[in-house]
Inverse folding.
């Protein structure tokens, strides 16, 4: 699967930031974690994941380093920068507000 | 802060460590794939199957990688590098296109920069004076003199009573040749100025100080200022020159200052030495000493030139009350800014050049544009394929834009070289009269401006495909011409029209130059050498000394073998000294009222004979006349008709000026040009230079300089050393100049020749561009229609039909462009009037020439591709698609 249709535009960034906020993680693990935590609802394919990761890195919100993975191979680990932590807080707040608004709307209708 | 650092680090890394970054990207995806395979293996799939499933799940990796690369901020640099490489390759692959496009733009840049660099110092350069825009030239204008002048008594009266200026100053009207006589004599130009001259202009000497009031007194010891150039070339910039004593015309003078490097006389006359104008001021004030000068003044703040003029008007009226009434109406007050005075006669030329340059630039840009259009059309397939392969519209445009800019860049480099070369050529060709040209250097601002135009042109050229990109997808399959051919036609019509305008100008000037060079100036200039000499004012301070010198030179030159006759005159046709007709009188007649200028000349008896001037009636001077007490005069046909419309001029008594004696008219000479090559023939009277000292002087001129006319079969090269030797034997300190009469006259035609050469060059360049454009458009149309032509021939059309078909298409453009061009040329030709000699700006002959020439060149440009179309093999053409 490619882009999850039910992912609101921009929320992928939030998901990634939230995921790597816990600990440094490589791409595959990030995809797995999002899937697990969302209870198999959100599936992020590599075609969306990696461009997003690279974009966030270019923006300076996450940084990367090469480390040995749990399977003892070289993997690229992403972790949150200070700017990223602030961005995460902003994005999360935005998301709260947006989702609250949308649920309110849905309930009202 | 650290965020920016990180970003810069990433940018630098992806720019300079690209292979590594790309390899890491591969590795990252590889890792993902392997984890996916492992995951699948865990779920119990067979190894092969696990691999395929993982790959399926991951989707198109190449595309994702490209997206990842796109997130890098420096991507555009890599794209640019790629575009540049590709663009360079494309340009190299079509050398014809590249060469012509580059040359078109380079020519535009070169011509524009060179010409504007010449014009700019004339029209816009800052004058080297403090607050130069507040400086004005003040004076009286009379038809006999192109520049306003001042009379001594007027000057003092005005400067006492004027209210508009903070300061008024003056210099002597003429810059006199003078000789440095201490060691290796050297001919220089001396200007005489008033004490407040430099302070008024706001100039401070680089060494030493200004003249003092005492320096200005008559009989004060002479002090002098050196020009920077003289100080540099002759005195090696030694600061000790100040206080040193040099010798000018045999008189000791103390150097008191060195002028700044940028110094120039406000009258724009070249000057090496600045001397104090030592006059008896009370005598000048009273009008008992005649003094002509050029006056300049500095406006008070807030006073405009017009206000200053108005405030001087009463003083002017007051002053000219003393002038004879018939002269009064001929005099006008002039107050104008110094800049206006300086650019005086070059302004029309400058504007014409400016206009021409813009037309050339237009043609050049149009040509480049038209070439790019043709190329875009030829590359439609390529663009379509690239679009099909996933290149976005913006990416394609960026590519073509890069190519446009590449061409601009190469053109800019070539253009700069061309500009420098052209400028040097123009300066080398420039006649002496256009002294402002010699100072011209390439102006960086203009170069930049031109480069901007050129790059704008490159950008427009690069964006041209945009017009057709809408249809890019279908372009590959369709042979339907889009709107571009029309645009190309418009460009070609513009080019043809512009070159028609340029060509008309060039042809008119050429005709005019031809008239100038072929006109009969009234003298037989073959086998004539001229020797000009001018005596030092101080050493030859009496008329006797001067007469003696020239008479001895004439006698000495007669002794050279091979010399047929030697004559002397104070001025050589086609020049002549000016005299006011209204101050002349005829014995027993009322005063003359006509306002006119007369040419006055003093000649030795051999003058008419040596120059081959016919005596129409009466006789010329003879050697026997030299001793007679009677004053004799020969007048020209023009003066005879003017003065004696219905009387016999012979035997009449004429007085040139009120202080002079009456002269008896003994002969009427044929008219000779005496107001330059292009002026009308002025009425002229010639008086005798004989053996009486008073013949060597007259009311308003003393003969310090003269020209010897030598009729001889010898060449200038053979005769010059002999002549020099003979003159040196008489006085080794007098510099002389030996020239053939042909060279002398040719120098006078230098300016029109220069103007014609310039415009001719432009016209040729424009015409070349237009024919390239026309050729391109026709060739393109012919190629487009190859298929159609094949069908036509197969259906029975003859080759001539095909030829006609293609040629008609081109001819339509030629007719349209030519018509527009000729109409424009006719409606703008009047601006050329001031440059034309004996040819009207609407000269039918010239315009017919233009039309024929244009048609011939255009037909040649069309004919070549049309011929090629005619030879199309029907079978080949039908297989075309």
């Amino acid at each position: 699967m490619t882009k999850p249709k039910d992912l609101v535009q921009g929320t992928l960034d939030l998901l990634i930031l939230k995921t790597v906020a816990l600990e440094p993680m490589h791409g595959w693990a990030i995809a797995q974690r999002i899937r697990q935590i969302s209870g198999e609802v959100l599936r992020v394919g590599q075609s969306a994941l990696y461009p997003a990761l690279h974009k966030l890195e270019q923006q300076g919100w996450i940084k990367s380093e090469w480390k040995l993975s749990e399977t003892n191979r070289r993997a690229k680990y992403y972790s949150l920068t200070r700017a990223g932590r602030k961005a995460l807080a902003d994005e999360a707040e935005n998301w709260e507000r947006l989702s609250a608004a949308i649920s309110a709307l849905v309930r009202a209708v | 802060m650290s965020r920016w650092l990180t970003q810069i680090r990433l940018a630098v890394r992806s720019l300079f460590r690209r292979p590594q970054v790309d390899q890491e990207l591969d590795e990252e995806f590889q890792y993902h794939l392997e984890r996916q395979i492992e995951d699948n293996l865990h779920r119990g799939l067979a190894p092969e199957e696990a691999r395929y499933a993982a790959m399926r799940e991951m989707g198109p990796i190449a595309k994702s990688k490209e997206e990842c690369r796109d997130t890098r901020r420096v991507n555009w640099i890599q794209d640019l590098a790629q575009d540049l490489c590709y663009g360079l390759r494309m340009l190299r692959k079509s050398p014809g296109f590249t060469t012509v496009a580059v040359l078109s733009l380079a020519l535009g840049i070169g011509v524009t920069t060179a010409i504007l660099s010449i014009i700019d110092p004339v029209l816009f350069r800052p004058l080297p004076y403090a607050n130069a825009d507040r400086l004005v030239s003040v004076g009286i204008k009379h038809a006999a003199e192109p520049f306003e002048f001042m009379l001594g008594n007027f000057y003092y009266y005005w400067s006492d009573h004027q209210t508009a200026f903070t300061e008024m100053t003056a210099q002597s009207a003429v810059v006199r040749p003078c000789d440095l006589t201490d060691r290796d004599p050297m001919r220089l130009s001396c200007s005489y100025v008033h004490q407040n001259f430099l302070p008024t202009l706001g100039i401070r000497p680089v060494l030493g100080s200004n003249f003092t009031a005492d320096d200005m007194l008559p009989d004060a010891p002479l002090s002098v200022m050196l020009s920077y150039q003289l100080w540099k070339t002759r005195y090696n910039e030694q600061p000790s020159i100040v206080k040193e004593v040099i010798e000018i015309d045999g008189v000791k003078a103390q150097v008191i200052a060195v002028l700044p490097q940028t110094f120039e006389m406000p009258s724009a006359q070249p000057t090496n030495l600045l001397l104090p104008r030592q006059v008896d001021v009370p005598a000048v004030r009273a009008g008992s000493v005649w003094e002509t000068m050029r006056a300049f003044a500095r406006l008070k703040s807030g006073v405009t030139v017009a206000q200053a003029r108005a405030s001087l008007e009463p003083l002017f009226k007051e002053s000219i009350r003393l002038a004879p009434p018939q002269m009064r109406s001929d005099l006008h007050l002039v107050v104008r800014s110094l800049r206006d005075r300086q650019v005086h006669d070059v302004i029309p030329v400058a504007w014409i050049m400016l206009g021409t340059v813009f037309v050339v630039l237009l043609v050049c840009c149009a040509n480049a544009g038209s070439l790019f259009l043709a190329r875009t059309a030829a590359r439609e397939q390529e663009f379509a394929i690239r679009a099909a392969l996933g290149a976005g519209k913006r990416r394609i445009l960026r590519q073509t834009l890069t190519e446009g800019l590449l061409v601009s860049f190469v053109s800019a480099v070539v253009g700069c070289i061309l500009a420098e070369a052209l400028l040097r050529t123009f300066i080398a060709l420039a006649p002496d009269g256009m002294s402002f040209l010699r100072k011209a250097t390439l102006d960086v601002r203009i170069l930049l401006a031109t480069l901007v135009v050129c790059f704008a042109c490159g950008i427009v050229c690069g964006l041209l495909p945009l017009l057709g990109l809408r249809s890019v997808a279908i372009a590959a399959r369709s042979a339907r011409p889009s709107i571009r051919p029309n645009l190309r036609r418009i460009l070609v019509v513009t080019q043809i029209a512009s070159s028609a305008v340029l060509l008309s100008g060039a042809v008119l000037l050429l005709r005019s130059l031809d008239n100038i060079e072929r006109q009969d100036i009234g003298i037989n200039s073959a086998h004539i050498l001229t020797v000009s000499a001018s005596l030092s004012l101080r050493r030859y301070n009496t008329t006797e000394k001067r007469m003696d010198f020239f008479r001895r030179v004439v006698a000495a030159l007669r002794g050279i073998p091979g010399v047929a006759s030697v004559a002397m005159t104070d001025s050589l046709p086609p020049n002549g000294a000016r005299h006011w007709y209204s101050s002349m009188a005829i014995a027993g007649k009322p005063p003359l009222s006509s306002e006119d200028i007369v040419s006055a000349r003093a000649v030795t008896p051999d003058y008419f004979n040596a120059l081959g001037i016919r005596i129409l009636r009466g006789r010329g001077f003879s050697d026997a006349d030299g001793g007679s007490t009677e004053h004799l005069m020969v007048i020209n046909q023009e003066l005879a008709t003017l003065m004696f419309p219905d009387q016999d001029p012979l035997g009449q008594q004429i007085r040139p000026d009120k202080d002079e004696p009456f002269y008896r008219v003994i002969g009427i000479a044929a008219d000779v040009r005496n107001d330059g090559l292009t002026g009308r023939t002025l009425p002229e009277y010639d008086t005798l230079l004989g053996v009486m000292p008073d013949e060597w002087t007259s009311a308003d001129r003393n003969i310090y300089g003269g020209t010897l006319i030598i009729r001889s079969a010898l060449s200038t090269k053979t005769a010059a050393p002999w002549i020099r030797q003979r003159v040196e034997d008489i006085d080794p300190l007098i510099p002389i100049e030996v020239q053939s009469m042909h060279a002398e006259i040719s120098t006078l035609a230098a300016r029109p020749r220069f103007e014609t050469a310039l415009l001719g060059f432009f016209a040729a360049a424009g015409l070349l561009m237009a024919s390239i454009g026309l050729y391109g458009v026709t060739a393109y149309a012919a190629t487009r229609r190859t298929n159609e032509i094949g069908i036509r021939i197969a259906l029975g059309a003859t080759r001539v039909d095909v030829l006609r078909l293609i040629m008609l298409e081109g001819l339509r453009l030629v007719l349209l462009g030519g018509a527009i061009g000729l109409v424009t040329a006719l409606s703008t030709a009047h601006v050329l009037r001031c440059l034309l000699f004996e040819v009207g700006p609407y000269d039918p002959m010239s315009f017919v020439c233009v039309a024929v020439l244009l048609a011939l060149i255009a037909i040649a440009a069309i004919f070549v591709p049309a011929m090629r179309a005619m030879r199309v093999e029907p079978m080949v053409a039908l297989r075309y698609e």
User: Anything to note?
Assistant: The radius of gyration of chain B is 38 Å.
